[in-house]
Design a protein that fits this description.
single chain, alpha/beta, Udp-n-acetylmuramoylalanyl-d-glutamate--2,6- Diaminopimelate Ligase, Chain: A, domain 1, 2 domains, 6-stranded mixed β-sheet, 10 helices, elongated
Length: 252
C-alpha cells in the first residue's frame, strides 16, 4: 500500500504539533522526493552512512531527529552538504526531520521513550513554570545505588555511560536526552538524586560533585534512538506502510 507524501507529512506535523514549537532548524519536510510513500526508513541523524543505508533499503522517506539547515550554519551547498543532498535528490528520497517536537512529545518523545525503557515513572517537566522545558523529572519504584542504575542504563542502551557517583541512593531522577547537560542546574533545584543526559561538559562534573548528586552521560546518539523509532511506528500503523529503523552507530 502507498500513501501520498503530502498526507504523511500533514499527519506528522499534526501529531507532533510541530508548527507551534520554535526550534533551531526547520521541522517537517526538508527535502522533497517522490510523491508516493510505501516505506519509511528512520534513524537518528541524516548522515551519509544513514542515507546510503536508506537507499539500499529502498526508502521513499528518510525520517530523522537530526536533519539539516541549522541556524548559523554555512548555507552554501558544498562538500559534505552537497554530497548528502545529492544522494537524496538523485534518488528521489524525501527527508523528514523533527528536532524539538520529537524531544517533547508526550507519547513518542525521546524523553518519554527513554523513561519507559529505564523504568522511570514520569512526574512532570523539569521546570514546571517554563513551557519551553525539554527535560523531565520522575522517580523509580525502589531506590538503587548510582552504580546499579548506571548498569541498568548500560544494559538498556548497549554502551557504558559516564558516571559521576554521588553519595545517596537514587530514587528521584531528572533527565534530558541528547546535549542537555546544561539543565543540570534546574535538576539540582528540582531536588533530584541523579541527573541523566547524553553529553557532559567540563563543568558538569563540578556541579554534580559540589551539589551532592549523581550524574550520568549516556551518549547523545544512544539516548535519542527511541523517539524517531516510535514516530516511525506510529506513522506505519496509521497508514499501513512499512517502517524500518536503521541504527548507524555513534559513540558520542
Amino acid at each position: 500500500m502507498a500513501i501520498a507524501l503530502s498526507t504523511l507529512v500533514e499527519e506528522a506535523q499534526r501529531y507532533l504539533n510541530a508548527e507551534r514549537i520554535s526550534d533551531y532548524c526547520p521541522n517537517g519536510l526538508q527535502v522533497e522526493g517522490r510523491p508516493q510513500v510505501r516505506r519509511i526508513v528512520s534513524g537518528v541523524t541524516a548522515s551519509q552512512a544513514l542515507l546510503d543505508a536508506a537507499l539500499e533499503a529502498e526508502a521513499d522517506v528518510l525520517l530523522v531527529h537530526h536533519g539539516y539547515f541549522w541556524k548559523g550554519e554555512n548555507p552554501c551547498v558544498t562538500g559534505m552538504k552537497q554530497r548528502r543532498l545529492k544522494t537524496l535528490l538523485l534518488n528521489d528520497i524525501s527527508l523528514l526531520a523533527y528536532h524539538l517536537p520529537l524531544d517533547v512529545h508526550p507519547e513518542v518523545g525521546n524523553n518519554v521513550q527513554l523513561a519507559h525503557r529505564l523504568g522511570i515513572t514520569i512526574e512532570g517537566p523539569l521546570e514546571p513554570e517554563n513551557p519551553r522545558t525539554v527535560g523531565l523529572v520522575g522517580s523509580l519504584s525502589e531506590p538503587v545505588s548510582p552504580r546499579d542504575f548506571a548498569l541498568r542504563v548500560q544494559e538498556v542502551l548497549g554502551r557504558e555511560p559516564l558516571l559521576v557517583e554521588g553519595p545517596q541512593m537514587i530514587r528521584r531522577i531528572g533527565w534530558c536526552t541528547g546535549g542537555g547537560q546544561g539543565y543540570i542546574d534546574q535538576a539540582i533545584v528540582a531536588g533530584v538524586d541523579l541527573y541523566l543526559t547524553g553529553e557532559a561538559s567540563e563543568q558538569t562534573f563540578h556541579s554534580a560533585r559540589e551539589n551532592g548528586i549523581s550524574f550520568i552521560a549516556a551518549g547523545h546518539h544512544a539516548t535519542e534512538r527511541y523517539g524517531v523509532q516510535a514516530l516511525g511506528d506510529y506513522l506505519a500503523r496509521r497508514f499501513a506502510i512499512e517502517h524500518l529503523f536503521i541504527d548507524c552507530a555513534n559513540p558520542i
